[in-house]
Write a structure and sequence with these properties.
The complex is a heterotrimer of chains A (365), B (308) and C (498). By secondary structure, chain A is mainly alpha-helical. Helices cover 70% and strands 4% of the residues of chain A. Chain A has helices spanning 15-39, 44-54, 59-84, 92-109, 115-144, 148-168, 202-219, 221-231, 233-238, 243-270, 281-291, 296-319, 325-345, 359-364, and strands at residues 3-9, 346-352. A two-stranded antiparallel sheet of chain A has the order 1-2. Chain A is globular, with a radius of gyration of 24 Å. Chain C has three domains: 12-93 and 167-248, P-loop containing nucleotide triphosphate hydrolases (Rossmann fold, 3-Layer(aba) Sandwich), CATH 3.40.50.300; 251-328 and 414-498, 3-Layer(aba) Sandwich (Rossmann fold), CATH 3.40.50; 342-413, no CATH class. Chain C is 32% helix and 26% strand. In chain C, helix 15 (429-445) links the parallel strand 18 and strand 19 (448-453). Classes of the chains: A mainly alpha (365), B mainly alpha (308), C alpha/beta (498).
Chain lengths: 365, 308, 498
Amino acid sequence: MAFSIRLERRLNAPMAMRIAVPVAAVAGGLLAGGVVMALGGHDPIDAYGSIWEGSLGSSDGFQSTLIKACPLVLTGLAVATALRVGLWNIGGEGQLIVGATAATGVGLYAASLPGPLLLPAMILSGCAAGAVWAAIAAVPRALIGLNEIIVTLFMNYIAILLMDHLIFGPWGDPKAFGFAYSRPLPDAAVLPLLPGTYVHVGIVIALLVAVTAWWLMERTPWGFSVRVSGGNPRTAEYLGLRISRRMIIVLALSGAIAGLAGAIELTGVTNRLQDGISVNYGYSGVLIAFLARGRLLGVVLAAFLFATLVVGSYALQTTGVAQPIATIIQALIIVFLLAGDAALAFRLRITRTRPLLEPAQAGAG
Amino acid sequence: MSFWLNSLSVGIVLGTPLAYAALGELIAERAGVMNLGVEGMMLMGAVVGFIVTLGTHNAVAGFAAAIAAGAALASVHAVMTVGLRVNQIVMGLTLTILGAGLSAYIGTGYAGRRPGAGVSAIAIPVLSQIPLLGSVLFNHDVFVYAVPFVALGIWLLLYRSRFGLWLRAAGEQPGAADASGVPVFLIRYLAVIAGGGFAGLAGAYFSVVYTQTWAEGMTSGRGWIAIALVIFGTWDPIVVLLGALLFGFVDGLNFQLQSVGVPVSTHLLAMMPYVFTLIVLVFAWTRLRHRRVGMPEALGVPYEREAR
Amino acid sequence: MGAASDPGAASDAARGVLEARGITKSFGDRLANDHVDLTVHRGEIRALLGENGAGKTTLISVLCGQYQPDGGLVTVHGRTLTLGSPRAALQAGIGVVHQDFRLVPRFTVTENVVLGTKAWGGPKDEDTVAAQASAAGFRLDPRAPAWALSVGELQQLAILKLLFRGLEILILDEPTAVLSPPQAAELFKSMRTLAAAGKSIIFITHRLREVGAVASEVTILRQGKVVADRAVAGLDAQQMSVLMIGSSDAGGRVETRPGAAGDVVLRLEAVTVEGRSVRALDDMHLEVRRGEIVGVAGISGNGQTALAEVAAGIIRPVSGRRESAAAAVAYIPEDRLNRGLVGAMSVTDNLALRRYTSRAMSHPLWIWTDRMTALARRLIDAFNIPVRKPSTRVADLSGGGLQRVLLARELSEQPDLIIAAQPTRGLDVASAAMVREQLVRHRDRGAGVMLISEDLDEVLELSDRVLVLFKGAVVGEYSRGKLNRAEIGLRMGGEGAA
């Protein structure tokens, strides 16, 4: 007797499964990450112990997690916002970097501005630079339909090289002994801290941006029209909506959010432009937005989870496990989540390929 | 004169891995599956090829392992996108990130070492003696010599064989192919996995042959350039090969300009291949988009036999 | 693979070339095929008759291996067929000409014909295909790309593909839907020739008159079950209709009185629209008045889509003028999910698509989602949209559900002009009846209606005036009292005096 195994579309997945799948995906990702560590000759239980200790298990760790969550919330929001108009912004990395670069430029060349003006000027210029960087990809997408994934990606490499050019060249710090640092920024260009902590106010800004993005996209008529354009351009055309304009505006907004992340990292964490100001934040943003199912407020939670992994994995360096493990676990979580999606959409059905006739039916012919 | 000849020679070497990666992507895309994980597969190929070459002192073993590593990561893509019908864009991106992370993890401690074995250049007798062009064209390693034949072979496979007809049908109209008895799923699996093998090979070429060293993220976006090459190569293996060589040349120009001491920052020069790719892409797409020349109709669409 | 067991089958004359027993297939809760039996004999033309949604396409999808049934058995020449494998079905000799033909547009005629066989489409194959095409009476250039062929030629190509493989059981899924009546007669002639040569043919249709025209046997499906399996002789259209619909009420046809035409509400003057290779509309003149239904008959691909979109004001003509006196235009597009709805958004959102900016729904800085939901609940009740919650995604609805969402949105604004393109295609009987009823009701209210349909019976039944569309131009106009079915049929195929 032969059997055939096939996938069959499920019409409705049970509610319990819809909740269980993402939870299981995170667990599966952590488990698979443990396997990778074990294969690398490290004790995964020890490793996860230090991840916990280094992130949520201590006050210092928790504060570091909040600091790390800030850029991740923003890059996740950038991706989720662009998805509203149906575009994939894979260029968060580059937009973040040009955001930090522009803010540095203002900080270095307008250092004489009074403190209360300097910081906003830097942050706004970061947003503007991110918006412009994203718009470079948005315009060919909107006007000639050129795939935005490729263009936003290429802009990442160009952004990194532009930053390198500046920090190794005109903005380089002569006292950095050849390290890839710009000159330090003036004291007025440092983001204030939340009282009683060493967490800068960036996380508050990020949460405000999340709520604003949710309001704009989900609760205004314009946001509604953006979602229609992203959901079905042909229907949007029928309704007379100008899709290309919305694409450009939304992708620019998305870039502005990523640029903001760069300006905040600069003013809140590094205080000078340096290589590695972004630790794959832009790419993690894509995964975060996907983990959150594109939901703008869900991004906050997903970003927090990823921040935990990243901060925790710094602690791993002391136990000898290399830091890329955070990236690996993040990607594995998404792989499991995708497999889980398939489990939600399809049901495995095993049938005999040669079903026997029941006598009653055979006679009925 | 020697400046241009050197650039040409370097360009051929730099274009070769791009061509392998792009041809691999072309095979997958012609079968209807977009693989945005090329960059990750190249990195895996680079690190595995490097480590195995170092361990065995045998570049052949290194390349075999690199091909296997690329194919292994690609088979994850195939199972997820062809078998489970997961979104190809998300899956490919995730694999790029996974490949970057895994290769960095595996390669910890290998940065800065030498592979200990390599693939040496073979000067072709007589031909390499041709003045000027001889040494540019006929003093390379076996991968360089093989690439035009590989491209031609893929062209013949696509347009002059039953398998090619089936593969193109799977990428154009999987429903029609399936109804005609073509094993669409099997073909898509094979195409994606083969494409990953090509990406792995391209990665190993970077680490074992070209730079002869391993560094985290060393392919720095070449995988994405390969994907772009497929687009403006209009999904034709011969045009894709020419495109890859052109890009290799632009990439190589950067090093040549540095070596002759052009007073421009190395970082700005290094932008050239990206900026050039973007500009060419915009022009190529402006010209092609209405006709969608060569683009498989079902590219990126999961096939489901019972879909209604 | 393929037919494997029980070699040495008994005489086919007695037991049928193909026998399907107890075929059962469900989609979610819906039973599309419920223990269906079907037998076809050598040289027989069997009609498979049923309304949309009766399970005809599901049955043939099982026979050709596309669907794996939940239960049942198929034998070919007495040998059990491996189900759920298109390859096995082909090897057993079963071939289908699908409604959408399942061809590869970029491939040549030859490549399409040989796809899936041992050949790859080289010069030798071209000669074989050319020879076989002319033997079958088809005029097809073996090197022409499929995208350049007309609908009729595509159908010939799809049939040729089956003949090339020497298949014995040919299944034609609604082959006449894309043909003019004279072309259909031509097809019937080819079918009889093939049957005489020993092929067995299953002919799927929902048009009663075609059954008597070509088939000798008929199997009638209703709601997934076989309700009749007999010879066509001695069965009249009325009886078939009763069997097919399940009552003597012939398919929810609506009672129509002639409308009273008023002022012109839409005028197209010398409108020209460019298409992919030829002009989609060529110097089109047309008027729609208030209180009338103007039916546009024609075979698909003669400019229907362009006409609908120009009339609805979505696309602008290259030349010519569109004048409309309508304050509100309703558009029921042919491609419901892709042109009128957003699949990933909820029923609520889709119902609000044309009024989310109104002051009742929103302020530039805020949308009152509760008001949108309230509107949705009202429309869901009024139009019997089959959803439990207004937050259901539109992509999860059936064809009938999608059309009800569109109607609810478009018609609830009391439009003066209604453009309906293929509004009942693929719908279940109840939804189709509702669509027709709504069009008549709004006509009686004083709206001008343009009904573009490939279903000639529907056009003839509902229209106050019928226009025949051929190659992007009006080639015939008939007022209600002077409808001539045969002549309209000829004009649809580009024949008859202009």
